[in-house]
Design goal:
By secondary structure, the protein is an all-alpha fold. The chain is built from 19 helices and no strands.
Length: 395
C-alpha cells in the first residue's frame, strides 16, 4: 500500500485517524495552557515542565501493571472510556484555586490512564491495516500528530492571548469528549485480540518475553531515551521564551511533520532501515546551538531542523513489528509508547532540574549532549548484536 487514497479508503481508518487528530489537538492545547498556568503561579521551570509532560512519568508504572489489557480488552470501548476520562481530568484541572499538589496528582492519574491507550491504539491500527500498509498508516498518524501540534500550539498560543488558561483547559476537555464520540460512532465493536483477563501477572509475563530479546531491547531503548531527552529540551520552551513558546512548539511540530512525510512516503524501505542513527543524531545536535542563547527566529529554525529526526521512530517501530509475533503486537506497541512517554517525562524533569540550577538555554545544550552520547552508545551495541535472532515465544 503506497497510496494515500488507498489508505483512506480502508474501512475504519478515516474515523480512527480523525479521533487521533482531535485527541492530539486537545493534548497540545491543554498541555500549553497548564504549563502556562503553573509557570505564572510558581515561576518555576521545573514545575512548568513537569506539569506539561508529567503524565508521561506515570506511563511506565501503568505499563508495569495494566498493559496486558492492550490485547485483552475490546478496543472501541477502551479507547472511548480513556478519552472520556481525559475529558474529566482536564475539566478538573480548570478548577480555580486548585493546589499544585492536586494538579500534579491529576496529571499523574492522566498518565496512568494513558498508559493503556498507546497499546490499544497501536494494536487496533495493526488490525485495520494490512501489513504492507502499516508504515504508511503510522506515518500519517505521526504527520497528523505534527500538524495537530502545529495547529494546537498555534491555536493555544492565540487562545492564551485572548482567554484565561482555565478556559483553554475547558476547551480541551470538550475536544476529548468529541474524540470519544467519534470513536464510539466510527469504529465497529471488535473482540479482544487475546483471550484471558487483564492482570498484573500477564502484564509482567509478556513484558519479560518482549524484553528477553537483545535486538528488541536495543530497539526499545533507541525509541525511548534519545527521544525522551529531546522532549526534555522542548519542555523548557515556556521558560526559555515565555511569550513565544507556542511558536517554538509549532516549529518543532512542523519539523516532525516533514520528517514523517519524507520517511513514510518517499524513502525506499532499503534506505529507510539505515537512517535511524543519523536521524537520532539530527534530533539532538541542533539543540547544541542553544548554548549561544539564540533569539526566537534562529531558535525556531533549530528546533524545526531537529524535529525532522523524530522520523527515526517510524524506522524503529517498523523494526519492532518485524521482531515481534503478531499476537503480541498491541502489547509491544503499548510498551513502546509507555516507555517512550515515560522517558519524555523523565527528560522533562531532568531538563527542568538542570534549568533550575543553571538556565533553560544551558540545560537544553547539556541534555542534547547526553542524547548524542546515548545514540552513539546504542549504535555500537547494535552493531555487536547484529545477526542475533529474537525470541518469539508468546506469553
Amino acid at each position: 500500500m503506497r497510496s494515500y487514497r488507498e489508505l483512506f479508503r480502508t474501512p475504519e481508518y478515516t474515523p480512527f485517524f480523525l479521533s487521533f487528530a482531535a485527541q492530539n489537538a486537545a493534548l497540545t492545547i491543554s498541555g500549553l495552557a497548564l504549563a502556562t498556568l503553573v509557570y505564572r503561579a510558581t515561576a518555576s521551570p521545573l514545575l512548568s515542565a513537569v506539569s506539561m509532560f508529567g503524565p508521561q512519568l506515570a506511563q511506565m508504572l501503568g505499563a508495569t501493571f495494566f498493559l496486558s489489557g492492550a490485547d485483552r480488552l475490546p478496543p472501541r470501548a477502551t479507547l472511548t472510556g480513556i478519552n472520556t476520562a481525559f475529558a474529566v481530568c482536564t475539566a478538573l484541572l480548570a478548577l480555580p484555586g486548585l493546589p499544585i499538589g492536586a494538579v500534579l496528582a491529576l496529571v499523574f492519574l492522566q498518565g496512568l490512564i494513558a498508559s493503556l491507550g498507546g497499546g490499544v491504539s497501536g494494536g487496533l491500527l495493526n488490525e485495520i491495516l494490512s501489513k504492507d500498509g502499516y508504515l504508511l498508516g503510522r506515518s500519517v498518524f505521526n504527520m497528523a500528530s505534527g500538524l495537530m501540534q502545529v495547529t494546537g500550539f498555534a491555536a493555544g498560543g492565540a487562545l492564551l492571548a485572548l482567554l484565561a488558561p482555565r478556559v483553554c483547559l475547558l476547551l480541551a476537555a470538550g475536544l476529548y469528549l468529541t474524540t470519544a464520540l467519534v470513536l464510539r460512532l466510527g469504529l465497529t465493536a471488535r473482540p479482544p485480540r487475546t483471550a484471558g483477563r487483564p492482570s498484573v501477572a500477564a502484564t509482567w509475563r509478556t513484558n519479560a518475553v518482549l524484553w528477553s530479546s537483545r535486538p528488541r531491547r536495543l530497539t526499545y531503548l533507541g525509541m525511548w531515551i534519545p527521544n525522551g531527552l529531546i522532549v526534555g529540551c522542548e519542555s523548557l520552551y515556556v521558560s526559555y521564551a515565555p511569550g513565544s513558546a507556542g511558536a517554538l512548539f509549532a516549529s518543532a511540530a512542523l519539523g516532525m511533520f516533514v520528517g514523517d512525510l519524507t520517511l513514510g512516503r518517499f524513502v525506499p524501505a532499503t534506505l529507510r532501515a539505515r537512517l535511524d542513527i543519523p536521524l537520532r543524531l539530527l534530533l539532538a545536535t541542533p539543540y547544541l546551538f542553544f548554548a549561544l542563547r539564540p533569539g526566537l527566529p534562529w531558535a525556531a529554525i533549530a528546533v524545526c531542523a531537529a524535529s525532522v529526526g523524530y522520523g527515526a521512530s517510524l524506522v524503529l517501530q517498523e523494526r519492532l513489528m518485524e521482531l515481534t509475533p503478531g499476537e503480541l503486537a498491541g502489547h509491544a506497541l503499548g510498551l513502546r509508547s509507555a516507555g517512550m512517554l515515560s522517558m519524555q517525562g523523565i527528560g522533562a524533569a531532568l531538563a527542568g532540574t538542570v534549568a533550575q540550577l543553571t538556565s533553560p538555554a544551558t540545560a537544553m545544550s547539556l541534555v542534547a549532549v547526553a542524547s548524542v552520547g546515548v545514540t552513539a552508545t546504542l549504535a555500537v551495541l547494535g552493531r555487536q548484536a547484529r545477526g542475533e535472532v529474537p525470541e518469539v515465544r508468546t506469553a
